[in-house]
């Protein structure tokens, strides 16, 4: 028999009593539902821990699928897994035990049942404007700071049609996507979701955050239009299937919301509220909010953010912030539109049931930032989000050595492949002596020692990793579009928006090193007396892995993929194939492009030079940059098919950063590129 009173915890947990309740709950969460059921029978305290609603919510979210709420997460999960029937023992009254107290469980319970009606309306720190001219918006707010705008949605049909009652009437049977920090996709019919909202008492309630609503409920698209201030979107040149997710239909109950984040790809966003009230908190770029940790992988630049839920942040962290540490704040009312500039951190808490629509966009103001964020590497991604604390080579002293309210870097959690950047401090990251005496700046740019963080593209681009080949390196999986799609996007912009070519060129230099490849093109052209490219021909074409330029009737392909060994064998094999067709008199020779020139492009002492090569013999330039010990080096085609097979079987890894690239110039064929066929 377990003892009652204050000793229940020790008696019920035995040796596990030394573990805090938070850790015990985390351990239980690792178990399968059937094992949780068995563990609940061990003791009264285990029974309590194993019947926590957040635990069973977590178990369901790990399963995913079509969601239908049964009144509790335990019942919903067990029904989803076919572990109980509708009339099972779950209908029995829950057991209650005296003598057990847990501050951790109480705080979680409080967050589940607290109400937010006490949040009265206030002007906050974000400016409110009825409407703005486009010129006024661009000069005062676009790329500079958030603003709340009224009257932009006054004429929308959604102002009257997007009440919960009307939405359920019109779209009750339509399935929408649910947003939640879960590895599994969750979908619900709108009528089931509304039923869930009315019954739930979750700390972090599910909410509809659907980027495909235009497909499942196309009539919703007719109920609003993009406000005149935000109609420029440079992703519009892509087909709908090609462009990244950009618009969301949002419904959420009280206590739900979006935790701290920077919008994907450093895009800007607008959000119009149709029903309810939202509380917003915002920090400028480079300022990590307190309680938030940014992870940036050094391997592929993948960005991951650890953050409490929006409710938890407002209840547990916000009250302890000094006045100078608090974010910009505002309460958004129905009919108001908030603009969030590129790079701004923001957190949203629904004070009551809300309905909203939001879109992200790329315009002239944030275009270069979006292109910069696409570039491979991790340092620039960290600096864009966490300021100068992401600069490699910087070290942080003990916490005692830092004055209160400064940003700190969790150096103890750093690994070889990941930097963890943790924010605790003031809105601006200053390099003044009083704040950064314990920081040791790297050799990336000595001038940083006397600079403060700036979201200016010239400042941020200093942190691009120069050794990365931006055309062929692996891109981050969190980039809004893939590497090939980005090249297609930039090419379309170049052709369709000639008035923006100065800006597009700058973005292409950041994203795909187009200035480097254009310099290569110019050297090849000069060497072989090819015509100069027209304005339309200055960007690479196609979506292949190598830069390809079409200049007049010539195709110039620069082999960059896979490193020097791989690309040199690729060129050698092609040249051997062409030579073989000519020798045997194959009719296939009439159906392949004529080779005009081939060779290697070498970068030495800041200058590009060409070394012509027809595939025969071993060129001296390879012996210098890539010595190949081949028994067949003196054969007719030493880098032909046989050598390529041997090279492939060798399997040795090779750096792709050697300053030499094979190239080939051929006559342009008629017809579409293979990728479009």
Would you give an account of this structure?
- GO terms for molecular function: metal ion binding; oxidoreductase activity.
- Pfam families: Cupin_8, F-box-like.
- Residues 13-59 form the F-box domain.
- One of its GO terms (cellular component) is cytoplasm.
- It comes from Aegilops tauschii subsp. strangulata (Goatgrass).
- The protein has 677 residues and is α+β, with helices and mostly antiparallel strands.
- Among the domains are: 6-85 and 95-113, Up-down Bundle (Monooxygenase), CATH 1.20.1280; 122-276 and 328-361, Jelly Rolls (Sandwich), CATH 2.60.120; 559-667, no CATH class.
- It contains 23 helices and 22 strands.
- The strands form 4 sheets. It has a 10-stranded mixed β-sheet with strand order 1-5-4-6-7-16-9-14-3-2.
- A hairpin with a 6-residue loop joins strand 4 (175-179) and strand 5.
- Helix 18 (483-496) runs antiparallel to helix 19 (501-512).
- The chain is globular, with a radius of gyration of 30 Å.
- The model is unreliable at 1-5, 394-420 and 424-447 (pLDDT under 50).
What spatial form do the alpha-carbon principal axes imply? globular
Largest sheet: 10 strands, mixed
| Strand elements, count | 22
Q: From the alpha-carbon coordinates, what is the Rg to the nearest angstrom?
A: 30 Å
Low-confidence stretches: 1-5, 394-420, 424-447
Please list the strands of the largest sheet in the order they lie side by side: 1-5-4-6-7-16-9-14-3-2
Would you identify the CATH architecture of the domain at 122-276 and 328-361?
Sandwich
In terms of DSSP E residues, the strand content is 15-25%
Distance between the termini: 76 Å
CATH class of the domain at 122-276 and 328-361: Mainly Beta
The CATH superfamily of the domain at 122-276 and 328-361 bears the name Cupin
Global structural class? alpha+beta
CATH structural fold name of the domain at 122-276 and 328-361: Jelly Rolls
Number of H/I helices: 23
Provide the residue-averaged pLDDT.
Answer: 83
Helix share of residues? 25-40%
């Amino acid at each position: 028999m377990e003892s009652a009173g204050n000793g229940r915890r020790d008696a019920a947990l035995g040796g596990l009593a030394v573990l805090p309740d938070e850790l015990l709950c985390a351990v239980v969460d690792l178990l399968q539902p059937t094992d949780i059921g068995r563990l609940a029978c061990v003791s009264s305290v285990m029974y309590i821990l194993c019947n926590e609603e957040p635990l069973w919510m977590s178990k369901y979210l790990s399963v995913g699928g079509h969601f239908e709420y049964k009144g509790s997460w335990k019942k919903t999960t067990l029904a989803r897994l076919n572990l109980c029937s509708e009339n099972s023992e779950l209908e029995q009254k829950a057991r209650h035990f005296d003598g057990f107290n847990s501050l951790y469980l109480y705080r979680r319970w409080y967050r589940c049942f607290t109400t937010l009606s006490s949040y009265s309306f206030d002007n906050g720190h974000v400016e409110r404007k009825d409407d703005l001219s486009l010129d006024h918006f661009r000069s005062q707010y676009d790329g500079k700071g958030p603003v709340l705008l009224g009257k932009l949605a006054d004429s929308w049909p959604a102002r009257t049609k997007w009440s919960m009652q009307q939405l359920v009437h019109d779209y009750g049977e339509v399935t929408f996507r649910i947003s939640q920090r879960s590895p599994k996709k969750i979908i619900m019919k709108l009528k089931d979701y509304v039923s869930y909202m009315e019954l739930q008492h979750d700390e972090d309630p599910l909410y509809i955050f659907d980027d495909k609503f235009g497909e499942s409920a196309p009539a919703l698209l007719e109920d609003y239009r993009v406000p005149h201030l935000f109609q420029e979107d440079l992703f519009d040149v892509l087909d709908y299937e090609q462009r990244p997710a950009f618009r969301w239909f949002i419904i959420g109950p009280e206590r739900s919301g979006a935790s701290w984040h920077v919008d994907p790809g450093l895009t800007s966003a607008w959000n119009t509220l149709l029903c309810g009230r939202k509380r917003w908190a915002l920090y400028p770029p480079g300022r990590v909010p307190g309680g938030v940790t940014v992870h940036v992988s050094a391997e592929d630049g993948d960005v991951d953010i650890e953050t409490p839920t929006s409710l938890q942040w407002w209840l547990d962290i916000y009250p302890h912030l000094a006045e100078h540490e608090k974010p910009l704040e505002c309460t958004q009312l129905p009919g108001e539109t908030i603009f969030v500039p590129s790079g701004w951190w923001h957190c949203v808490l629904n004070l009551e049931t809300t309905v909203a629509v939001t879109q992200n966009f790329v315009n002239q103001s944030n275009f270069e930032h979006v292109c910069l964020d696409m570039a491979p590497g991790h340092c620039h991604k960290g600096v864009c989000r966490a300021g100068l604390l992401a600069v490699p080579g910087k070290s942080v002293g003990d916490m005692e050595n830092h004055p209160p309210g400064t940003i700190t870097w969790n150096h103890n959690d750093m690994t070889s492949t990941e930097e963890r950047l943790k924010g605790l401090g003031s809105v601006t990251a200053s390099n003044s002596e009083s704040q950064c005496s314990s920081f040791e700046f790297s050799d990336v740019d000595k001038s940083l020692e006397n600079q403060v963080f700036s979201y200016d593209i010239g400042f941020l681009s200093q942190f691009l990793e120069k050794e990365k080949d931006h055309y062929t390196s692996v891109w981050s999986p969190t980039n809004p579009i893939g590497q090939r799609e980005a090249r297609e996007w930039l090419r379309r912009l170049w052709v369709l928006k000639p008035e923006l070519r100065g800006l597009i060129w700058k973005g292409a230099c950041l994203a795909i090193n187009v200035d480097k490849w254009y310099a290569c093109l110019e050297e090849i052209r000069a060497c072989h007396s090819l015509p100069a490219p027209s304005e339309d021909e200055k960007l690479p074409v196609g979506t292949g892995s190598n830069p390809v330029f079409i200049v007049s009737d010539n195709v110039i392909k620069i082999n960059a993929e896979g490193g020097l060994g791989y690309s040199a064998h690729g060129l050698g094999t092609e040249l051997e194939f062409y030579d073989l067709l000519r020798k045997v008199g194959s009719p296939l020779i009439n159906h392949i492009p004529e080779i005009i020139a081939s060779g290697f492009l070498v970068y030495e002492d800041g200058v590009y030079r060409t070394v012509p090569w027809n595939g025969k013999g071993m060129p001296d330039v390879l012996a210098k940059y890539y010595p190949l010990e081949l028994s067949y080096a003196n054969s007719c085609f030493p880098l032909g098919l046989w050598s390529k097979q041997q090279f492939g079987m060798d399997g040795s890894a090779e750096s792709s950063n050697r300053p030499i690239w094979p190239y080939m110039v051929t006559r342009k064929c008629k017809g579409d590129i293979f990728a479009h066929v």
